[in-house]
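User: Run a structure prediction on this.
Assistant: Running it now.
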Amino acid sequence: MGSSDRLFNRQRTVHEVLGGGLVADVILWRRNKLTWGILVVTLAAWVVFEISGYTLLSLSSSVLLLLTTILFLWAKSAAILNRPSPPLPKMHISEDMMNDVAAFARTHINALLLAFQDVALGKDTWMYFKVAISLLLISIVGSLTDFLTLGYTSLVVILTVPALYEKYEEHFDKYVMAGYGSAVQFYSKLSEGYISKVQQWIAEQKKLS
């Protein structure tokens, strides 16, 4: 499939657009077992939260309390009975790792603040409309469902839509570009028939005033 036949005339494949690494492999089901594992674990967690009534904070606290208690009693009993301690890995975050995380966070936060500044000062109208529409959609979806259901649904969409698009890319792009062409023709007819007349009427009104 040539680049001219692809949506937005892109040169790269879907796998390359998604980064071409492990994440792209998981999203596009190149690693079926891992993708299935993520779906099953996420579904199990969602069911547990919905049935038990636990919140994420309460469940995490309970699991950490149970784990800490088991390890503490294991270590104490091992010291008394001259047994080996729990096989815990060395818990340490290197300075290089923290610097990388800080640099990554700083870059993205600065980009977000710059975009917010442009919107707030009226410099980027298109960005304002994108932000406004995105926040409106989030507000509407948030009023219809809870955070956990939204997260699981979003994960299912992420793990299905790109894979389906890659599989039926040629047909999808063909229909989308056909629809785009029809929309452009409709706008051209609308512009010739109505918008140009309105613009002409506005120009005449300005001349009269």
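Helices lie at 14-17, 22-27, 32-52, 56-81, 95-120, 125-144, 147-167, 169-208.
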